[in-house]
Amino acid sequence: MFNIDDGWRVVTNLDFERASGFANAAFALLKRTQIPPFPVYFELFYTYATGANEQLNADVNDLLSRGGPIPIEDASLLCEKYLDIKDMDAKLREMSAVMVRKIDNVNDAIGNAMVTANSYSGSLQQASGDLAGGIDEDALKLLSSRLLKETRRMQDMNRRLEMELESSKDDISLLQRDLDEVRKQTVLDPLTRIPNRKGLDEQLAIEVTQAESSGLPLSLLVLDIDHFKAFNDTYGHLTGDQVLRLVAQVLKANLRSRDMPARFGGEEFVAILPETDINVAISIAERIRQAVQSKELLKRSTNEKLGRITLSVGVAQFQQGDTPVKLMDRADKSLYAAKSSGRNQVVSQNDLTDTPGSIGVA
Hints:
- This is diguanylate cyclase.
- It catalyses: 2 GTP = 3',3'-c-di-GMP + 2 diphosphate.
- One of its GO terms (molecular function) is diguanylate cyclase activity.
- This protein is of the alpha+beta class.
- It contains 11 helices and 7 strands.
- It folds into 3 domains: about 15-80, no CATH class; about 90-185; about 195-350, Alpha-Beta Plaits (2-Layer Sandwich), CATH 3.30.70.
- β4 and β5 (about 305-310) form a beta hairpin.
- The longest helix has about 50 residues, at about 135-185.
- It is elongated.
- It starts with 15 loop residues before the first helix and ends in a 14-residue tail after the last strand.
């Protein structure tokens, strides 16, 4: 369980000094955790400093208790959870506006440089004409002074343009990092911190295409937590969330780096297993099922034993001509068979008899 820091109070109508104190505390935490001081992260830690949200404080305290920097992914998840910024399009629009401003600044700098260059070119042409017509010593000195002044102005303008371009290069690098971060967040389930349905669909389409062209095996697991609704109704959604995180952790611990776990939705998970035939996939599924069943759940706040949870798992292997939908459908039918046969077991497409129509999950 998370430790709640009782040192802060919920406050309203903050005066300047109190607000400044919270702001300083937020900046100190950003520095301590090495989180960039972007407005959204400042808001997160400012809210933490006020103590206005006990659950947010509990989650932040949990991260702080681990020591060292806080991964930016974890901070982003907290922002999504507590600051209601789930609309990634808003982030993209904000970054797009920054990019537009930067491009405008560069265009202005280039435009000014071109005006200066044209003026300098005109001065050179005029000087060339004066020299061709012959001038006395005093006129030559004035001409030289004017050209030197124009040259220095041109040099200054070039330096300003170089500085603007260098600044733009740095800003674009930061924007690229932010875009990469947004991209990661759009395909990440904020609760379990594994890919979501969008990430699953994208990767499964890639893997099916590769399996079709390479002829290498590809297997798919569809996993469902047995009686999860009843568990949620009995112990509450917060405890249910912990169970979902547990299953995600077990998946990550029992899959290879090239495999991909994902939360399909609700209490259902999927694992993509490239270059894996169905027999190996069945063994992996069984290992995951046993690992989940071996975990005895304990509510730390009361030491109440909550029992164990179990998984039903369906397994399917890619067949030439399969689409992602067809492959998922066979895995889904296998899962339905596992649940219909008593749950807490692994069933593969090899165990199925031909049944017309697509069968959903119970």
